[in-house]
Amino acid sequence: MFKRRKLATLLMGVVASSLMITACGKDSQTTGSNEKGAKTLNLLTWEGYADPEFTKGFEEKYDVKINATYFGSSDELLAKLKSGGGDTYDIISPSSDVASILVDSGLVEDIDTSKIENYSNLNERLRSLKDVLKDGKTYGVPFTWGPDYLIYDADVVKEEPKSWSTFWDPQYKGKVSVWDDISNIYLTGQIMGLDKSDESTIYNMSEKQLQDAKKKLLELKPNIRKYWATAGELNDLFANKEVVMAVGWPLTIAEVNAKGRNLKWTIPSEGATGWIDRLMVVKGSKHKELAEKYLNYITTPEAQAKVAKVTTYGIANPKAAQFMDKALIEQTYVNNMDDMFSKLNFWQPVKERNRYNEIWTEVKTQ
Q: What pLDDT is recorded for position 84?
């Protein structure tokens, strides 16, 4: 998710999808008649998914300005998309718990994968997931993926936690943080062992199971320092030594440790949930052809390597390894994707999403 890089404003740049001027130079040769003169591409993404490190090359090639609006949760994405749609956004980066909702709701365009030169090089499992496939058409292109780690401050927590139950240890009162998101319910269901025989169970919990999860999350509240809203906020909690353990993503470890800290991660005995982020083209996008050119660009090995460098997330194109150093390859599992996949229960569509949100709200307000 995320999904996720720095504490950012919700709006970066000026959303100007109506700005049209005469194309020139390289753009006039490459964008085609439908895109001729289009000078902006508007992304609605997780934090860090429009970093200049990997978007600048596209902007220069097509003489285009990429504008990014960030969202902090899948539900915020849904709300923004429903209020703006193709009049405001061109590309979105939903996670695997809402992707099928977007497809079934007719909020995204189908994608001509023949225009994506590296599509066949993308990891097969990521390409074959059915939540973005409908009636023989494809509605999403794999972009990044990753685990919901247990992150801990190794200078304080001397031994690697073996179980998520460590979060509830009284010695960590006021020193734990979890994301302000319903994914905590998925994780709690996993801690309760509900996904041992059927991974989908934690995304389709019964009312009794939801109440049991709520009770467990309420029991955790004394240990919660704060429910973090953005990855940047979690970074700050660790950097300021306000917390010693949290649910978080790989980028937090990389960014905080770069400033001299000693954060480590683990996947406890109960396992961990994980997310897969796709890139989708918004229904009614005024720049669909240009959006598909961006999907073609961002899935190249070179661009994917830059995405890995910036985010430290898993990426979709394993051929990016040729442009990455050994440390980054190991950090992002490029050469052993399937092994890491086997350790994660990736987010799935939640049919009763409203009920999950109600339960999470009750947890926060009680």
A: 83
Distance, in Å, from the CA atom of 254 to the CA atom of 239, rounded to the nearest integer, reads 12
* Ranges of the chain whose pLDDT falls below 70: 1-38
The neighbour count for residue 71, using CB atoms within 10 Å, is 23
Are 240 and 7 a contacting pair, CB within 8 Å? no
Token pair for residue 124?
Answer: 């097969």
Angle (nearest 5°) at CA 307 between 62 and 65: 25
Question: Can you tell me whether residue 58 is helix, strand or coil?
Answer: helix
Please state the pTM of the whole predicted model: 0.84
Cβ neighbours, 10 Å, residue 241 = 12
- Residue 113 has what DSSP assignment? G
The pLDDT assigned to 1 comes to 54
* Nearest residue to 95 (alpha-carbon basis) of 274, 277, 347, 345: 277
* Alpha carbons 301 and 322: distance in angstroms, whole number: 8
Amino acid making up residue 329: I
Q: Is 143 helix (H, G, I), strand (E, B) or coil?
A: strand
Q: How far apart are CA 82 and CA 84, in angstroms?
A: 6
Scored b (16 or more CB within 10 A) or e, 336-353 reads: ebeebbeebbbbbbbeeb
Token pair recorded at residue 294: 């961006």
